Amino acid sequence: MSNVFSLQGQVALVTGASRGIGRAVLLELGRLGATVVGTATSAAGAADIGKAIADAGLQGAGLALDVTDAAACEAVVGDIEKRFGAVGVLVNNAGITRDNLAMRMKDEEWDAVIDTNLKAVFRMSRLVMRGMMKARNGRIVNITSVVGSAGNPGQANYAAAKAGVAGMSRALARELGSRNITVNCVAPGFIDTDMTRALPDAARDALLGNIALGRLGKPEEIAGAVAFLVSPAAAYVTGTTLHVNGGMYMS
Amino acid sequence: MENIEQRVRKIVAEQLGVNESEIKNESSFVDDLGADSLDTVELVMALEEEFECEIPDEEAEKITTVQQAIDYVNAHLKQ
């Protein structure tokens, strides 16, 4: 395979792959030839990922992981290395929301989002760096959000975490560039997932009016952007954020 | 079997892309052999692998010359 999008021979780890964007990314990277490992917070979720991988005829596994558990993260990365080889592609997708107006936001809501959406992204990235540095090759893609650039009422914690990841990605891109490791972000706009389905209808309708393409995005449309960034085709792209939002926010 | 000094020198040469003949035991990785900070981290990683040990960060920071690396390995790995 000399396809510039081929991921043949790569081991890709996607966190938060039980549904939505993470699931779509997992399957897309698998289709491009990577051995794919997806994580879910529950054992049942992990089993479901394993089944989806098998059903699609792909190589890989589903593993249970709470990304805020440092020891568990280390164990999972070690386990993957033993079973499949060193992680060459990391997609930090796992994320949560704890929306609230700032005046009402509790410290716990702030901390939970920062821990999962920012701190854990750094931790996972740090864990795979060693193998990537040795291989002189690596791809890290962090799933951020249009909210990190445009802001959104009720999401001070989420916006802070996502903007934080973007800054961190640029720092890592500079730090690791000499070892042929690229670090980029994909910033989805409003994608039709469980997370956005939780929005009230009125809020969804208001959103649609601001989207140039006039519709919500599909998880597969984020997966395509991620697939590009982790592929050989994007070898010279690092430290950037690829906005995939139907023209809702233009940078 | 090569001795520890030879093994350390070999790793330094490989990691920093320098000729072994240019490496003196008193050579500083950064000042004499052109290493940057990331190179020194990788060098420690390579030493850890070669000698199957874990070098704590606070110890790793003190290893700045070839001789210091040899001394560290000798002090910590002699059975």
Automatic annotation (TrEMBL), chain A:
GO terms for molecular function: 3-oxoacyl-[acyl-carrier-protein] reductase (NADPH) activity; NAD binding. Residues 10-193 form the Ketoreductase domain. It comes from the Bacteria. It is an enzyme of class 1 (oxidoreductase). NADP(+) binds at residues 16-19, 41, 93, 158-162, 191. Pathway: Lipid metabolism; fatty acid biosynthesis. Gene3D superfamilies: NAD(P)-binding Rossmann-like Domain (3.40.50.720). InterPro entries: 3oxo_ACP_reduc, KR_dom, NAD(P)-bd_dom_sf, Sc_DH/Rdtase_CS, SDR, SDR_fam. One of its GO terms (biological process) is fatty acid elongation. It catalyses: a (3R)-hydroxyacyl-[ACP] + NADP(+) = a 3-oxoacyl-[ACP] + NADPH + H(+). It holds the Pfam family adh_short_C2. The active site is at residue 158. Its EC number is 1.1.1.100. SUPFAM superfamilies: NAD(P)-binding Rossmann-fold domains. Keywords: Fatty acid biosynthesis, Fatty acid metabolism, Lipid biosynthesis, Lipid metabolism, NADP, Oxidoreductase. Homotetramer. Catalyzes the NADPH-dependent reduction of beta-ketoacyl-ACP substrates to beta-hydroxyacyl-ACP products, the first reductive step in the elongation cycle of fatty acid biosynthesis. Belongs to the short-chain dehydrogenases/reductases (SDR) family. PANTHER family: 3-OXOACYL-(ACYL-CARRIER-PROTEIN) REDUCTASE, 3-OXOACYL-[ACYL-CARRIER-PROTEIN] REDUCTASE FABG. This is 3-oxoacyl-[acyl-carrier-protein] reductase. It comes from Pseudothauera nasutitermitis.
TrEMBL record, chain B:
GO terms for biological process: Kdo2-lipid A biosynthetic process; lipid A biosynthetic process. It comes from the Bacteria. GO terms for molecular function: acyl binding; acyl carrier activity. 4'-phosphopantetheine is transferred from CoA to a specific serine of apo-ACP by acpS. 4'-phosphopantetheine is transferred from CoA to a specific serine of apo-ACP by AcpS. This modification is essential for activity because fatty acids are bound in thioester linkage to the sulfhydryl of the prosthetic group. InterPro entries: ACP, ACP-like_sf, PP-bd_ACP, Ppantetheine_attach_site. The modification O-(pantetheine 4'-phosphoryl)serine is found at residue 37. Belongs to the acyl carrier protein (ACP) family. PANTHER family: ACYL CARRIER PROTEIN, CARRIER DOMAIN-CONTAINING PROTEIN. This is Acyl carrier protein. The lineage of its organism: Bacteria, Pseudomonadati, Pseudomonadota, Betaproteobacteria, Rhodocyclales. The gene is acpP.
